[in-house]
Amino acid sequence: MEKYEHKYGADQIQVLEGLEAVRKRPGMYIGSVSVRGLHHLVYEIVDNSVDEALAGYCKNIYVTIEPGNIISVEDDGRGIPVEIHAKTGISAAETVYTVLHAGGKFGGDSGYKVSGGLHGVGASVVNALSQWTEVTIQRDGGIYQMSFERGKTVKKLEKIGDSDKTGTKVRFLADDTIFETLEYEYDVLEKRFREMAFLTKGLKITIEDKREETPKKAEFCYEGGLKSFVEYLNKTKEKLHPQPIYVEKVNNDIPVEIAIQYTTSYNENIYTFVNNINTIEGGTHLEGFKRALTKVFNDYARNHNILKEKEPNLLGEDIREGITAVISVKVKEPQFEGQTKTKLGNSEVTGVVQSMVNESLSNFLEENPSVAKAILEKCISASRAREAARKARELVRRKTALEGSTLPGKLADCSSKNAEECEIYIVEGDSAGGSAKQGRDRKFQAILPLWGKMLNVEKSRADKIYNNDKLQPVILAVGAGIGADFDITKIRYGKVIIMADADVDGAHIRTLLLTFFFRYMRPLIENGNVFLAQPPLYKLSKKGMEDIYCYTDEDLAREYKKLEEKGIAREQLALQRYKGLGEMNPEQLWETTMDPEKRILVQVQLEDAMKADEIFSLLMGDEVEPRRNFITENAKYVKNLDI
Predict the structure, then answer these.
(1) According to the 3-state scheme, what is the secondary structure of 566-611?
(2) What pTM did the predictor assign?
(3) What's the pLDDT score for residue 585?
(4) What's the domain count of the chain?
């Protein structure tokens, strides 16, 4: 890894302002005090180590979750400077941990050429929000240590030994008076560090969880960089070409790394990163990539007579069907825009990425005509399907919900037109639909019964979806279009509730609907409008006793135990196992599943689009072997309770 030869000493630690208000308003610095904010503390410290790797000085990072939820992060970078800082009068290391906006990532003569943590708040914020922090530094032939409590220095930096190694080790315990929980989720951290390793070629990141009797441990190191990343993302998908198209260049002092692979799926998955930060809203690097991709494939198709003279050019969406791509750029001074500050705004990056992809991808297609032909055949097929979808979409638009008479025939609408208070139940089967219609509150609850299994959209193009008789009623009822035309401001119902039987068939219907919403109405999930109804599994009854509804096997076991303590034996109780919603009369359905005062609704949330795409592709795609492996590996988690 190339080393950037800049002086890295106390003079490079620049102080912008003092550490204030972090403990009073932690959300301003880490987003929240939930488990997500807790994990953010770990990311901030690990990001500092990754920045050392980006500068070419760190090869290994070791993250440990110790018993008691203590976090340890150790690297073999240069070690934080230990000499006295001229401006603060204390050691540079203590300055980094006690002064907000102090770090080696500001200014042209800094210790870092590029960095993920550009604001200099990471170390000091983690320190401020921890019960205690201990920092050990190996540098300049010595071992140095300092410690803090809730951001205050309790032990000044002092030399405790000699060493010919370099690096920094940080141990901290998050403050339980600030965070809602101190329980770290190993799987969440593991995923994040795998992603970091993909993005930093050759860097080895190890995570170990020592909280349980049997520790968990994972090591990530990918010499293939983004090429390995794309292969990982596509491991459950059928590929059009075995090896990803890989490009790595430095242009105008901006390193760019891109990996591309086409699959037989109909979905577009492009992930972009700047200085290892996931730019979920895209930005100028994505814009440059899309422009180049469209131009290169159209030029190739014209030059090789794949597209005839009178045929129109392929659109970008045609060319991106089935693509999996990861774009990573390193920018010295990134400018972020957008709602969540995750959209790159540097205008110069567009041209850099565009010219690089133009040249490299053109050369690849010329050298690999069989791959070029396979991709373009898919693109042309996508273009034809897009035209068919356009005609079907126009038909759907003419049948808009605003026209009243063209609402789905089986929809029992509500009387209110205020989307914020309205909700629609998508119900499995006419029998359950009939009970729901009779049991609902007609003012704000609409019922849409569906019959039979619907289309698996993971295996279908948009034109098939617009014309599908199972999905068209859902599209019309929601009233906001689908795909690129979807407009969240036009939804007719603030809550879209999937109500299916509590059995395998019901779970399948829920999964099919969720796949549809994720692929074609994603803003509905992102905006928190999709819910799952939770009908009860059991009813316990006895003459003279109010009926008891149990939603899980655990609920049933718990209720049996409570009743036995009251002297009511199991033999005295009548147990009804609901096989379907249709077995409930309207009053029971209202009381257990539809009454806002008593019902249980599970909100569907999208925290990680990349992971969601992987799961939907795995469970609903064409590849059988990965799905079988997933089921085999996870079967052990299915509970069989003796009740």
Answers:
(1) CCCCHHHCEEEECCCHHHCCHHHHHHHHHCCCCCCEEECCCCCHHH
(2) 0.72
(3) 87
(4) 3
